[in-house]
Design a protein that fits this description.
three-stranded antiparallel sheet, 14 helices, 38% helix, binds magnesium ion, 2 domains, seven-stranded parallel sheet, Enolase-like, domain 1, TIM Barrel, binds D-glucarate, alpha/beta
């Protein structure tokens, strides 16, 4: 089955003003929907990061793809790896997400571009054989993928601009009480059984209070995790780890409290010395296989947050699962704003991974029906999980009318990349800078 065409659909999706240590989400998040056509009349799709750079990288890959057999993914990967070697060796910087929001680090572009193509090819193969994608990866460890409630401190507003402004479903949330309300709303609607709080926004004392309030409200049956995206110093991370020793126990974790593997290792060492075994998780310091030996050697990270979008696709996701199990590391999954195509890719990845032992992150509740690009609308959740449908490939088809609508919106937008820092200066504080550590 040969690829005859590559279609790229840049889209803009309404996004509420969510806060993180990176800054503020803009009124629209950007995504790219990728579609391949084959000589057998079968199409395959995937979803990846949006904006100018990811789009240009996919466009540049077109030449490699036309005429290629969708089954020959290893040779394609080898070409991407050789290209990465040539274009990035000797380039200053690293692949971490310390200073780059996910999708904006040029050093992982080859891996991201390959992943988008790999998933579209696997989708086409699954559709041709009428087999769910996770079954192509060797079958299921589970028939549904669990996700967690992903809570954010947020300003008033539901995203979108002008006539396209959206209702503010969750309302402003800048206090512990408001976050507890947000959790109730999200859990009631989706049935999540684990909770993640995006931190690094308010004074750590208030964030500690927020986690405590969540614990009081939901009890130990719903594990809690907090992720300040490196906003804290080692000292602050240790202090928060001590204060939340009880609340983050029993299946919770502390995610990327401070920047860098050395800092994380120091936090872990000091918490252990205090008899606190809260695991540290990462999707900022650990974003590729190359990071794992050092992270493991230092004892800096006990749980890796995978992400098929930048770890190199679904087969890489399975390899990571194996790696983690051999090294005794836990496995969870990272997310960014996304639509149903990505949600299904994440669900298939989670279904195929025997060692994934935490519910995956998802931003899906922050987007709405109006912005969905899969036919039939939003993907349903059952008790916080997404079921693997008995359909070929990812199990979704693209809605071309929606793609056209969201594409028009993308064309009209004045920005072509995610820049939470600029957004923060524009809407909240003209002098705001991302400073690490902030506390
Ligand atoms: O959406 O603001 C956000 C998050 O901070 C996101 O960009 C992170 O990459 O969810 C992510 C994380 O777990 O670090
Ligand atoms: Mg994170």
């Amino acid at each position: 089955m040969k690829i005859t065409a590559l279609h790229l659909y840049p889209v803009a999706i309404a996004d509420p003003p969510l806060r993180s240590s990176y800054g503020l989400h803009a009124p629209y998040a950007l995504r790219t929907i990728v579609e391949i056509e084959t000589d057998e009349g079968i199409r395959g799709c995937s979803e990846t990061y949006g904006g100018e750079q990811p789009l240009a990288q996919l466009q540049a890959a077109r030449e490699k793809l036309i005429g290629r057999d969708v089954f020959q993914l290893t040779s394609l990967l080898m070409e991407f790896e050789a290209q990465a070697q040539q274009e990035t060796s000797g380039v200053e910087g690293d692949r971490s997400q310390t200073w780059h929001v996910p999708g904006e680090n040029p050093l992982d572009r080859h891996s991201r571009t390959f992943a988008a193509i790999e998933i579209a090819c696997l989708d086409a193969i699954g559709k041709a054989w009428n087999k769910p994608l996770c079954d192509l990866l060797g079958g299921r460890a589970r028939s549904e993928a669990p996700f967690s409630a992903y809570l954010f401190y947020k300003h008033r507003g539901g995203g979108g601009l002008g006539e396209d402004e959206r209702p503010d479903e969750y309302g402003e949330a800048l206090t512990p009480e408001a976050i507890v309300r947000q959790a109730h709303q999200m859990i009631q609607k989706y049935g999540f059984r684990e909770i993640k709080l995006k931190g690094g926004v308010l004074d750590p004392e208030l964030e500690v209070e927020t986690i405590r309030a969540l614990r009081r409200e939901f009890g130990p049956a719903l594990p809690l995790r907090i992720d300040p995206n490196c906003a804290w110093s080692v000292e602050t991370s240790v202090k928060v780890g001590q204060q939340l020793a009880e609340e983050l126990s029993g299946g919770g974790y502390l995610e990327d409290p401070c920047a860098g593997l050395e800092g994380m290792a120091e936090v872990r060492k000091r918490l252990l010395a205090d008899g606190i075994s809260t695991p540290l998780a990462s999707n900022v310091a650990v974003t590729s296989f190359a990071h794992i030996p050092q992270a493991w050697k230092l004892g800096a990270v006990q749980i890796v947050l995978s992400d098929p979008h930048y770890w190199g696709g679904l087969r890489a996701q399975l390899q990571l699962d194996h790696f983690c199990s051999v090294l005794g590391l836990g496995l969870s999954m990272h997310s960014n704003n996304h639509l149903g195509v990505s949600l299904m890719a994440m669900a298939h990845a989670a279904a195929a991974c025997p060692h994934l032992n935490f519910a995956c992150d998802t931003h899906y509740p922050w987007q709405t029906e109006q912005d969905e690009v899969v036919l039939g609308g939003r993907i349903p959740f059952h008790n916080g999980s997404v079921r693997i449908p008995e359909k070929g490939g990812l199990g979704v088809e693209l809605d071309y009318d929606q793609l056209a609508r969201l594409g028009e919106r993308y064309e009209k937008l004045p920005y072509r990349k995610r820049d939470d820092e600029a957004e923060m200066r524009k809407r909240v504080d003209p002098n705001w800078r991302r400073v690490l550590p902030r506390w």
